[in-house]
Amino acid sequence: MTTPEKLESGKLSWMSLDDVEARVRALESLLVERGLAESAAVDAVVNAFENDMGPMNGAKVVARAWTEPDFKEWLLRDATSAIGSMGFTGLQSEHLLAVENTDDVHNVIVCTLCSCYPWTLLGIPPAWFKYPQYRARVVKEPREVLKEFGVELGPEVRIDVWDTSAELRYLVLPQRPAGTEGWSAEQLAEIVSRDSMVGVALVSVPS
Amino acid sequence: MTASITVPDLEGVAAIPRSNGEPTFDAPWQSRAFGMVVSLHEQGLYPWDEFKTLLIDEIERSGITDTCDPAVYYRQFTGAFFRLLEARGILSAEDLEVRTDEEKRLLAHEDEHTDDHGHGH
């Protein structure tokens, strides 16, 4: 058993403890017992971190760009600051670049080296994002890969493939679909899918 | 109900481990430790920087500053958390010691239970 003295600051690093699991459980049960922590609140943080941190954050960014021209201009000029101003930062130091889909250009994101991904905006990446097939093929034959995702682009549309790295991550600003005139940013955010912000889907109005 | 969760900022040497850019935990105790630190901060028990300073110190003191291994990082993380609680008089090493022994017994019992039945719950 580790004596209390050994745990005092500066005397023993937690690195060498073999019962760290029991210690963490002890910390939680003591804090809960003293009314300082609530297990449900701890669960909520963990869930938010693991599951819910996106893609709603990214969708909010897109919806705001669709409804506020000044914000859109800022987003395209300096996505790191524009997105940071909405509070979606932290835990990562890489820069963000927003790329806009238009009638002439369609953008799609890949990470050819590994699977870097703007997860604070888009949540946990989909499994296919990590598949070597996607990583290799979307660079070589993007039009074909997009077709497999159900996105058929006319020959006049240029496809730009952006290769994410640990330092620079991309967010696709999809085109706002017709039929959404007068919608609020909240309504719009609900129809912006994760895939549309990776560039493998278009945003459509649910029928 | 998750919109209120603010993601704290931890960069450089104190950055959260990630597998290919994703944050990772490889054992439940790691996510519990993370959740406790963030939720108590959100409740206003301490400013984030107070924790961050201790975490950086803990990482530097351990001599392992460049790991992506969550098992190492969350030890440093938990060490910093305990130091914070201790410094603020919230928990003592003795409190923790006594409760840890209880939890160890419970864990051992759970293991036994799992072995008996050949599967967990």
TrEMBL record, chain A:
Record Pfam families: NHase_alpha
Extract the InterPro entries matched here. CN_Hdrase_a/SCN_Hdrase_g_sf, CN_Hdrtase_a/SCN_Hdrlase_g, CN_Hdrtase_asu/SCN_Hdrlase_gsu, Nitrile_hydratase_asu
This protein's source sits in the domain of life called Bacteria
Q: Which SUPFAM superfamilies match?
A: Nitrile hydratase alpha chain (SSF56209)
Q: Does the keyword Iron apply?
A: yes
Q: Could you tell me which Gene3D superfamilies the record lists for this protein?
A: Nitrile hydratase alpha /Thiocyanate hydrolase gamma
Query: Per UniProt, which keywords does this protein have?
Result: Iron, Lyase, Metal-binding
Instruction: Identify the EC number(s).
Output: 4.2.1.84
Residues binding Fe(3+): 111, 114-116
The catalytic activity, as recorded, is: an aliphatic primary amide = an aliphatic nitrile + H2O
Describe the location of the Nitrile hydratase alpha/Thiocyanate hydrolase gamma domain by residue ranges. 19-201
Give the GO molecular function terms: nitrile hydratase activity; transition metal ion binding
Family the UniProt entry places it in: Belongs to the nitrile hydratase subunit alpha family.
Protein's name in the database: nitrile hydratase
**Originating organism:** Pseudonocardia dioxanivorans (strain ATCC 55486 / DSM 44775 / JCM 13855 / CB1190)
TrEMBL record, chain B:
Annotated signal sequence range? none
Under Pfam families, the record lists: NHase_beta_N
Q: Which organism is it from?
A: Pseudonocardia dioxanivorans (strain ATCC 55486 / DSM 44775 / JCM 13855 / CB1190)
Give the protein name, as stated in the record: Nitrile hydratase beta subunit-like N-terminal domain-containing protein
Q: Which residues form a coiled coil?
A: none
Q: Which InterPro entries match?
A: CN_hydtase_beta-like_N, CN_hydtase_beta_C, Elect_transpt_acc-like_dom_sf, Nitrile_Hydratase_acc_put
> Per the database record, which ranges form the Nitrile hydratase beta subunit-like N-terminal domain?
10-104
Domain of life, per the record? Bacteria
